């Protein structure tokens, strides 16, 4: 959305950050997708930890910005860390006008990306002989883990027809009629991905596929792949990565936030 000069308000996308350089490369590739989809929109990157620039550095020199968390669920980072950092930035520069947008997920297009990654790994979407382990990073906030559990329940519901109309539950996820869908967490909660795979094997699942609900490669993604294959998974899909659907979600979040009144970050 344009500012008073007719220019688009800059988008500052804030990722968690990682010591693994693949993570930053993935974030930059995603933001390049955004730039291609919206030429002329100023897009800056920031990281909460382990990488630069920081949010304060990314906001430097701006009068106005839309700040969007590159996070997949609402949890501590989006509810506490980022608003606190934004309030600190505005305290240093009271004239800075900031709009703070929603996290990437949950969103139906992220499920489209998960299915894209599964298909790329050779999984037929909605195969009734395939059980899915939906793996998130996990959080100490039970609300965030509950969102992922709800996504898994809705994704595993029987579809209403073979034409793809499906079922959309409270999370906006369309039921596909998999053998089963189980949520798992790479940290902070159970079941772990390996436990979920083992439980599905014990329950008689003919085939088990792992769908990482993770933005970028790194420690968690590597651990999930290794431990789930050891536990008996048949296939592990790739992370979400710089998919065009994610760029579309990011621009949708940008448009919604840009229309809100500018001011301090949420407290």
Structure, described:
It contains eight helices and eight strands; from the N terminus they run E-H-E-H-E-H-E-H-E-H-E-H-E-H-E-H. The protein has 267 residues and is α/β, with parallel strands linked by helices. The strands form two sheets. The protein has a four-stranded parallel beta sheet, with helices on both faces. The protein has a four-stranded parallel beta sheet with strand order 6-5-7-8, with helices on both faces. The longest helix has 17 residues, at 21-37. The chain starts with 10 loop residues before the first strand and ends in a 9-residue tail after the last helix. The relative contact order is 0.18. Mean pLDDT is 89; it is low at 160-169.
Summarize this entry quickly.
This protein is an alpha/beta fold and 267 residues long. The chain has helices spanning 21-37, 55-59, 76-92, 108-120, 142-155, 193-202, 219-231, 244-258; strands at 11-15, 43-47, 64-69, 97-100, 130-136, 180-185, 207-212, 235-236. α1 (21-37) links the parallel β1 (11-15) and β2 (43-47).
| Proportion of strand residues | 15-25%
Rounded mean pLDDT is 89
According to DSSP, the number of beta strands is 8
The H/E string reads EHEHEHEHEHEHEHEH
What is the topology, as strand order, of the major beta sheet?
Answer: 2-1-3-4
End-to-end separation in angstroms reads 24 Å
Radius of gyration: 19 Å
**Helical proportion?**
25-40%
Strand count, sense and closure of the main sheet?
4 strands, parallel
Shape: elongated
Give start-end ranges of low-pLDDT stretches: 160-169
Which class do the helix and strand fractions yield?
Answer: alpha/beta
Total helical elements:
8
């Amino acid at each position: 959305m344009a500012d008073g000069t007719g220019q688009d308000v800059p988008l500052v996308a804030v990722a968690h950050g990682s010591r693994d350089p693949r993570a930053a490369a993935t974030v930059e590739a995603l933001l390049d997708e955004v730039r291609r989809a919206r030429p002329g929109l100023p897009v800056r990157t920031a990281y909460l930890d382990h990488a630069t620039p920081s949010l304060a550095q990314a906001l430097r020199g701006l009068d106005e910005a839309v700040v969007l968390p590159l996070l997949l669920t609402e949890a501590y980072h989006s509810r506490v860390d980022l608003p606190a950092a934004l309030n600190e930035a505005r305290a240093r520069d009271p004239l800075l006008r900031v709009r703070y947008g929603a996290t990437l997920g949950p969103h139906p297009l992220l499920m489209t990306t998960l299915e894209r990654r599964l298909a790329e790994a050779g999984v037929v979407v909605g195969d009734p002989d395939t059980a899915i382990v939906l793996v998130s990073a996990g959080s100490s906030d039970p609300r965030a883990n509950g969102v992922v559990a709800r996504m898994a329940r809705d994704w595993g519901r029987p579809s209403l027809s073979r034409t793809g109309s499906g079922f959309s539950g409270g999370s906006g996820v369309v039921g596909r009629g998999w053998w089963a869908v189980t949520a798992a967490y790479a940290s902070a909660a159970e079941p772990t991905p390996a436990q979920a795979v083992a439980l599905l094997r014990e329950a008689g699942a003919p085939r088990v596929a792992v769908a990482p609900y993770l933005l970028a490669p790194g420690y968690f993604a590597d651990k999930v792949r290794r431990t789930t294959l050891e536990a008996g998974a048949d296939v592990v899909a790739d992370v979400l990565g710089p998919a065009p659907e994610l760029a579309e979600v990011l621009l949708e979040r940008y448009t919604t936030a840009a229309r809100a009144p500018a001011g301090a970050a949420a407290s």
